[in-house]
Amino acid sequence: MKLKEKITVEEVNGKAFKIRMIEASEHGNAALTHYLHNHENGVSAFYKKEALTHIKRALEYKYPEDTITSKAAEEALQYMIFDFQKEIPFPAPAKPKFKFIDLFAGIGGFRLAMQNLGGKCVYTSEWDEQAKKTYQANFGEVPFGDITKEETKKFIPDNFDVLCAGFPCQAFSIAGRRGGFEDTRGTLFFDVAEIIKRKRPKAIFLENVKGLRNHDKGKTLKTILNVLREDLGYFVPEPKVLNARDFGVPQNRERIFIVGFRSDLGIEEFEYPKPPKQRVSFEDVKEKNTVSVKYYLSDTYLNTLVKHKERHASKGNGFGYEIIPDDGTANAVVCGGMGRERNLVYDDRLEDFTPITHIKGEVNRKGIRKMTPREWARLQGFPDNYIIPVADASAYKQFGNSVAVPVIQATAEKIVNRILEYVNRK
């Protein structure tokens, strides 16, 4: 097997050397980083065996002539703990108030919000490799992979408080007879439901596209709610569509939120957060300095967009590019070219119009450019010290797929308060 390598410098028994983190095991790096994040609590037991196996494999690769014992692997693992998290932009809180897991984690929008509220993430999964790079750069943790696989689910610990999942809305096939647990098989929601059934967290927090509400004439959402309420025994108030625009970011982004509480908590009411009065506009997130010429459209590309919009306008359609004024609100950032084309901006600060990428024609002189990945990050509520370690194409995709942090945090705060009320009553 061809080995993929990641280099980390560690020091064991006073001797500096490089450990090559061999990805011969699909879960090796994930188990190791999860162990390091949880070495001070009982959750580490779920990751230690795989973490030790991973380190032993790495040492055997580095020192093929030596006999690597389990004790040597244990010593290496313990030494890693000393310097762990020193360079992580978003470490876990020192004294967490609750524990949560982060499914379909993307680049950690849920995690940022939950950590801001004092939460400790004890398990995360994400299958996109580029998103994993971004997640690791910011949280120092490699997510586990495909959550539909049993070998991935087996690492999920017990006794966490909140399950978070921005699960993708795969098409449901619903016959309309049962509308229960079995009807969700073959969908990603089934895997979320299966984890809830096994682990019984105190609360669940799900996010999805607004269209879930009307998917298959409402049958899909009805099935999801029936599973959570009837099959799994959770109190689930009516889902709520919230707009990120109303929670402090200048982006018109509507998403549906589903919240639930385990029945034995005795919670029988829940109020979603009310939007604050403060509104912001694009100029609040716009780059303060001149951006690279690579973000400016070429004349040829701009003319194509104009003609495309004119064709649709002649048919009575509203499709096509859009330029967001500085005092305006951006459209939802989404994957694909349309997400960028519907969020163009004016920026006349560019002075050097010499192209640095291969374009057709010349750079337009009207000051029309795409938003930068950092502007998209701000539109989603990510702070400026959030690291973007991937190429622009991946960054646009990742932020387009992400949750908007402020609205997640506002809703999560309501959930956490109810949980803590229950804990304090006991």
From TrEMBL:
Catalytic machinery residues: 169
InterPro entries referenced in this protein's UniProt entry, alphabetically: C5-MTase, C5_DNA_meth_AS, C5_MeTfrase, SAM-dependent_MTases_sf
PROSITE patterns per UniProt: C5_MTASE_1, SAM_MT_C5
Keyword Cell inner membrane among record annotations: no
UniProt keywords, alphabetically: Methyltransferase, Restriction system, S-adenosyl-L-methionine, Transferase
Enzyme nomenclature, EC number: 2.1.1.37
Molecular function terms from GO: DNA (cytosine-5-)-methyltransferase activity
Class of enzymatic activity (EC top level): transferase
Catalytic activity: a 2'-deoxycytidine in DNA + S-adenosyl-L-methionine = a 5-methyl-2'-deoxycytidine in DNA + S-adenosyl-L-homocysteine + H(+)
GO process annotations (BP): DNA restriction-modification system; methylation
PANTHER family (alphabetical): TRNA (CYTOSINE(38)-C(5))-METHYLTRANSFERASE
Family, similarity comment: Belongs to the class I-like SAM-binding methyltransferase superfamily. C5-methyltransferase family.
NCBIfam families, per database record: dcm (TIGR00675)
Name assigned to this protein: Cytosine-specific methyltransferase
UniProt source species: Echinicola pacifica
Name of the gene this protein is made from: hpaIIM
